[in-house]
C-alpha cells in the first residue's frame, strides 16, 4: 500500500475515533436521561397504599349520582362531602407516590419523604355518614325537600370508592306571597316600593337559598334608604304547603325585632340622618384636609346610605396613604347618627429592587437590574412620585464586545381625573398620570437615545377590573454612531432598514386588566387577562401635505419622520392552586401580539417590535434570540437582537413545594415571533408568518426551576433546554443534545415568570 494511502487511513481512523468519543458522550447523556425517565415511571408505579396499616383503606374517589341529572348538577354538592380524596392531575399525584416511599422510621430520608410527600386520605365510614347528613341538609336548603341519600362502598386492593346515590325530593312552586309589615313609620312604604325588584316571585320554586339571597339584597336596598340598623335578621318566613296541593303560599313577615330578640324588644324601624362628621388621622402625617373632605361622600343632614359609606371607604383607601380606614356610626338621637372616619398611616416611601439575569452555554451573560424609589404623599395630597433606574447589560467574559442600556424615569400621579370634578365619579377616583423617561442604548452596531413622555389616567371600575388610558404618548428616537458594516447589511433588508432610523411618535395607548383575585399572592385558583393597545401617527397624518418629505416621501417633523402604526398585545393566564396547604399549582399563559405600520411608515419603530426568549418568555433561549420564524441568527448583530411584527407564545408550569421555603417547578414554553410583510427575499420568506410553515416555526423548550419563596420576595432559578429549534436544519433536538452548546440557558429572576 502506498505511503499516502496509509496516511489517509490513519487520518480516517483518528476521525472515526473522535466520532466514537462523541457518540459515547451522547450515549452517556442519553443513558442519564433514560434513567431519569425510568425513575419517574418508578415513582408513578409506586404503591399508594404501602404505608396503610391493617384495616385501613385509602379513599380513592367520591362519586355523586342523582336520579335526575338533567335537572340537577351533582358537582355542586362535592364541597359538602366531609372527606375528599387526594388531589390528582390526570389521575396521578406524584407527591402521594413519594410519601409511600417512607419506611416508617421518621428519620433522615424517611423524614424528608414525609415532609415533601402527601399522606393518603384514610377512608372513614363515620365521615361518610356525616356527608350523607350534609347532603340532605344542603338539598333541603336548595328546595328539594325530603331527598333520600344513600352510600355505596366499593373496595379494591385497600382502595375505597364511595358513591352517593341521591333521589331528589319534592319541590314546591310558590303560588302567592303575602307581606306582613310594621304599621309605624315610613318603613312599610319604602319596602313596598322595592317589591318589583324582588328575587323571589310567584311561580318560582320555594327554597331557603333564594329567600336568603332576597333578604341580603332587600336589606341592602333599605339601608341605602336611611334605615341604618336594618338587616336580614328582621325577616321571618312561613310557607304553607297544605292549603294548595303541590304548591306553597309564602308569607314574608318583617317584625320590629330580630330573630335573636323577642317581641318585648321591639322598636320602630326608623330612617336615620347624618349629624356630625369627624375625620382623624395621625398628627405625624401631613395631609391637606380639603382633599379628604372632597373625597368623602357623606355629608351632615344627608339620609344615611350604606352605599355612600362604602364609596367613601373605597375613595380614601385608594389613596394608599392609609394602612386602614374605619368608618363608624354612633346613634345620638332617635333618628340621628354621628359619623367618625379614622385612618392609620401606611408606609409612605421606600425602595423596590428587581433583578434578572441569564447565561447560556456560549458564555453570553445578561443582567437586568432595576431600582425604584416611591413616595405616596409627596405634596401632602396623596400624590404618588416614582423614580426609577434600569439597566440591561449583555457581555461575554474575556471579551470586549458588549451591549449596555440605561434608563431613568420619573412619574407623578394625582388623585383626581383632571380637569373633571370629584362628584362626577361614583366610585374610586381615577388618577391623573404624568410620566417622563430617558433611555440610552449602546450596542456594537449603533447608539440610540429615546426621550418619552405620557399623559393619561389610571383607575379601576371594581376590585377586579383595572385600566390605564394615555391619550397622549410622545417619544423621540435618535440613532447615531451606526457601524458601517451594520448599515450596509441593512441595504437589502427593508424591514430592518426602516426600523433603524430616527423617528418621532405621537399617539395614544391603553391597558386593560381583569383578574378574578386581586391579591398580590393569591391562595386560590385565579384567572387574569391583559390587553394593551397603542396607535400613533393618525392625527399627524392629517397635516402631512404641509410637511417636508424625506427621500422616501415620508412626512417629517423637525427633520425626523413620524411613525404611523397600530399595535396590540393580549395575555390570558389561569393558575390552578391545589394540594396540601395549597402547595401545588399549575400556571398557564397564552400571549398574542401584532403590530402593523401604514401610511407614513413602512415598518414598526424598533421599540414597538416584538421579541421572544429570556427569563419570562422562552427559557431555553436568552432574550431576543428566537426567530423571527424560521430565520437563523442575524450575524449583523454581534449581540443577538431578533425582532418581529407578531408574537405568539404559550407557557405551562407545574409548581410544587419542597421543604422550608424552597419550591420546585417543571415547565414547557413554546412560541415565536414573525414578520408580517413580504419583502420578496428568501430571508424575508423565512421570517414571515405563513400557515404552511407555522408548526415548523414554533420554538419549544422544557425545563426545571428552583424557587426561594420568602412571601414578600421570591427568587427564581430556571434552566431551560431546547426541544424544537426552528433555526436548525434538523428542528427537533435529540435528548442527548439538550446540554450541548447553544441548546440550554440559565435564568435568574425575582418573582414568577407569569
Textual characterization of the structure:
The structure is a single chain. Helices cover 18% and strands 37% of the residues. The protein has helices spanning 3-45, 94-99, 109-116, 125-141, 187-192, 208-224, 289-295, 306-318, 484-489, 494-499, 538-541, 682-687; strands spanning 58-66, 148-156, 159-167, 174-180, 235-240, 248-254, 273-280, 322-331, 336-345, 349-360, 364-375, 384-396, 402-414, 431-442, 447-460, 465-480, 503-515, 526-536, 548-549, 555-557, 560-561, 565-578, 584-597, 646-659, 662-674, 699-709, 714-724, 744-750. The longest helix is centred in the N-terminal third of the chain and has 43 residues, at 3-45. The two termini are 67 Å apart. Residues 1-45 have low confidence and may be disordered.
Provide a concise account of the structure shown:
18% of the residues lie in helices and 37% in strands. By secondary structure, it is of the alpha+beta class. Among the domains are: 174-265, Ubiquitin-like (UB roll), CATH 3.10.20; 273-345, Ubiquitin-like (UB roll) (Roll).
